[in-house]
Amino acid sequence: MSEDSPKQSPVIIITGTPGTGKSTHAQLLVAESPIPLKHINVGQLVKDKSFHHGFDEQWQSYTVDEDKLLDELEPLASAGGIILDWHTCEIFPERWADLVVVLRCNHTMLWDRLEKRNYPLKKIQENNEAEIMEVVLQEARDSYPQQIVVELKSESSQDIENNVTSIVSWIKQWLKDNDCKIEDDMDKDTIS
Ligand SMILES: Nc1ncnc2c1ncn2[C@@H]1O[C@H](COP(=O)(O)OP(=O)(O)O)[C@@H](O)[C@H]1O
């Protein structure tokens, strides 16, 4: 985190293999944060605003138009107060990020979660393998200073509560470190 950041609230990236609990964490964090945070579900944003070059049937995912996506997010990241929720993070410039949370999950549990989502078998296998190989964790460690990258277990509801509590503590400390005030009457919302 930058010591002399003019932002009044931080940018938090929540990343992890699909199904590890990013959106669940982000939603609870919005509800429990002492300051307003916007939850940006980046995958949904890509779809809604067509920041892509089409759907890749083989990979069952959109081919993202990174320039358009970054242009949209830049002013939001500069202002702060956002949670970027996506299954990849290296695209986000290092200067944006104050905290990078990487959610992790046992691969058997992850398999069940993705099956419930009706993902095709190939996509479940790929994501499962990525989780076992720690692909997203490695990407985060390669892209941001090690002191802002935090790996958190997301296997139970207790994990979610504990994780959100510790992120809220981190936010409070960030606000103190950056001489920012907590205002009671600010709205909280979610955008995609
Ligand atoms: N820590 C957890 N404990 C139990 N269930 C979880 C946990 N994290 C996520 N889930 C469940 O797994 C599914 C995927 O969660 P979601 O937040 O949509 O993941 P992501 O945003 O990473 O794709 C949801 O049904 C959610 O309730």
UniProtKB/TrEMBL annotation:
Question: Which GO cellular component terms, listed alphabetically, does the Swiss-Prot or TrEMBL entry include?
Answer: cytoplasm; nucleus
**Top EC category:** transferase
- The UniProt record gives the binding positions of ATP as 19, 21-24, 117
The record's region (LID) falls at: 116-126
Q: Where in the cell is it found?
A: Cytoplasm; Nucleus
Q: Where is this region: NMPbind?
A: 41-64
User: Where primarily located?
Assistant: cytoplasm
Q: Which GO terms describe its molecular function?
A: AMP kinase activity; ATP binding; ATP hydrolysis activity
Q: Which InterPro entries match?
A: Adenyl_kinase_AK6, P-loop_NTPase
Subunit composition and interactions: Interacts with small ribosomal subunit protein uS11. Not a structural component of 43S pre-ribosomes, but transiently interacts with them by binding to uS11.
What is this protein's function per UniProt?
Answer: Broad-specificity nucleoside monophosphate (NMP) kinase that catalyzes the reversible transfer of the terminal phosphate group between nucleoside triphosphates and monophosphates. Has also ATPase activity. Involved in the late cytoplasmic maturation steps of the 40S ribosomal particles, specifically 18S rRNA maturation. While NMP activity is not required for ribosome maturation, ATPase activity is. Associates transiently with small ribosomal subunit protein uS11. ATP hydrolysis breaks the interaction with uS11.
**What name does this protein carry?**
Adenylate kinase isoenzyme 6 homolog
| Protein's organism | Rhizopogon vinicolor AM-OR11-026
